[in-house]
Automatic annotation (TrEMBL):
The lineage of its organism: Bacteria, Bacillati, Actinomycetota, Actinomycetes, Kitasatosporales. This is Zinc finger CGNR domain-containing protein. Residues 1-30 are annotated as: Disordered. Residues 1-12, 19-30 have a biased composition (Low complexity). Residues 172-212 form the Zinc finger CGNR domain. Gene3D superfamilies: Jann2411-like domain. It comes from the Bacteria.
Length: 218
């Protein structure tokens, strides 16, 4: 099908306009409804698909994953991420997406996705650990700062996913109806089917185009 709507890439400038705070701008398009309240929904929506076969994974590299965490205030600005950290975030995202899909389809979720969220929930120590050596004696410290940051972020995201799935909002979860978009949203009203004005406009433009070409064929 011919794409009639303009292809608009992830536009960080739009976010900067909406969020004048000094914090670095969030990458990616405006949040889908619900993602402003649920970080887990924001996480699930971080693998973007645009018309024309263009994909943008906001967690695709350690640098982009770092930016994603910092702009969601899930990591301090000085954080350095490794590839394995970005990979863990992507793995959690896969699990959360599987859970959201199962909730939308009203089927029992895959056990490994439930397990992945529970592992993330329980994987972060809630307190600094006790250490003891002959120079300093007993003291408390984080075991490994980088691991701690990522473990903490993953635990927060997993807890949020569990909250979302068990909240009344879960009944209004839906995937965006605009191909090829794969974002989820929490419907703000019963008939809402699109994650964004852009996706809605694209579907309307495609329908109008189909009507025009249908008219010519008759
Ligand atoms: Zn969409």
């Amino acid at each position: 099908m011919k794409e009639t709507a303009p292809v608009d890439p992830a536009d960080p400038a739009a976010d900067r306009a909406a969020d004048p705070a000094a914090r670095p701008a969030r990458s990616g398009p405006p949040l889908a409804p619900g993602a402003e309240r649920y970080l887990a929904l924001d996480l699930a929506n971080s693998d973007l698909a645009f018309p024309g076969g263009r994909d943008v994974d906001l967690l695709g590299t350690p640098e982009s994953a770092r930016e994603w965490l910092i702009t969601r205030e899930l990591a301090p600005a000085e954080t350095v991420l490794y590839d394995v950290c970005a990979g863990r975030l992507r793995a959690l995202r896969d699990a959360v997406r599987a859970l959201l899909s199962a909730r939308v389809e009203d089927v029992v979720a895959p056990a490994d996705a439930v397990r992945a969220v529970n592992d993330a929930l329980t994987g972060a120590p809630s307190a600094a650990l006790l250490h003891w050596d002959d120079v300093r004696g007993p003291y408390r410290a984080q075991a490994h700062p980088i691991d701690q940051i990522v473990n903490h972020a993953i635990a927060v995201l997993a807890a949020d996913a569990a909250d979302l799935l068990t909240a009344p909002d879960a009944a209004r979860l839906t995937p965006c109806g605009a191909t090829p978009c794969r974002r989820f949203l929490v419907r703000t009203h019963a008939s809402r089917q699109w994650c964004s004005t852009r996706c809605g406009d694209r579907v309307r433009a495609a329908r109008a185009y189909a009507r025009r070409t249908q008219g010519k064929a008759d």
